[in-house]
Design a protein that fits this description.
Blueprint: H1 7-18, E1 28-30, H2 36-43, E2 48-50, H3 57-66, E3 72-73, E4 91-95, H4 109-118, E5 123-130, E6 140-147, H5 154-176
Parallel strand pairs: 1-2, 3-4
Antiparallel strand pairs: 4-5, 5-6
Length: about 190
């Protein structure tokens, strides 16, 4: 699920195509037709469905079931997700900070990096976590760290954190997916 440029989902697709991650991207849900990630994903042959606004949990469940989805990966998705009961523990997100610091509503992208810099942190990174019904409070699966350097601005820090994310997300998903039973066996 995306809300922006699609870099994270395309990074995962690259890992899948190289054989580093045994998974399949059955579809991409975007919160808007106008974000760059929609066309980038379509250009790579992915099915994209646009579902604006906060998606009701029953509609999300129906959509995921229609595409036989076992697990959901948020890849820069910015809307609050109403987790359908059948998908609890089956949705992951990556956050561009070391949660629980710098998480919650409105804390995404450059807002997070600006807050890290304003707080004078010497270290940041990313957190892969399970998704629940609130922003950034689900069980942490993996954290990776990187330094905040003297002279960093939002742009340089964001680039460094994204490089860490490109390693952390596939690693976390690779460890997490085998823990899930195929859908239908655990309902």
């Amino acid at each position: 699920m995306i809300s922006g440029g699609g870099r994270t989902v395309l990074n995962l697709l690259d890992h899948i195509e190289r054989g580093d991650l045994f998974a399949q991207i059955a579809m991409v849900i975007s919160s808007s037709e106008s974000v760059a990630g929609v066309q980038r994903c379509r250009d790579r042959g992915l099915i994209v469905e646009v579902m604006p606004g906060v998606i009701p949990s029953d509609l999300l469940a129906t959509t995921l079931d229609r595409h036989a989805i076992d697990a959901v990966v948020l890849a820069g998705y910015l809307k609050l997700l109403r987790v359908p009961a059948a998908y609890r523990g089956r949705i992951v997100n990556i956050h561009p900070a070391l949660l629980p610091k710098f998480g919650g509503k409105g804390m995404h992208g450059d807002h997070v990096h600006a807050a890290v810099l304003a707080a004078g942190e010497t270290e940041t990174g990313c957190t892969v976590h399970l998704v629940d019904d609130t922003y950034d409070t689900g069980k942490v699966l993996l954290q990776k760290r990187c330094p905040v350097l003297n002279g960093d601005d939002v742009k340089t820090l964001a680039a460094r954190v994204f490089q860490v994310e490109c390693e952390a997300y596939p690693e976390a998903i690779k460890a997490w997916l085998p823990t899930l039973q195929p859908r239908g066996t655990d309902l």
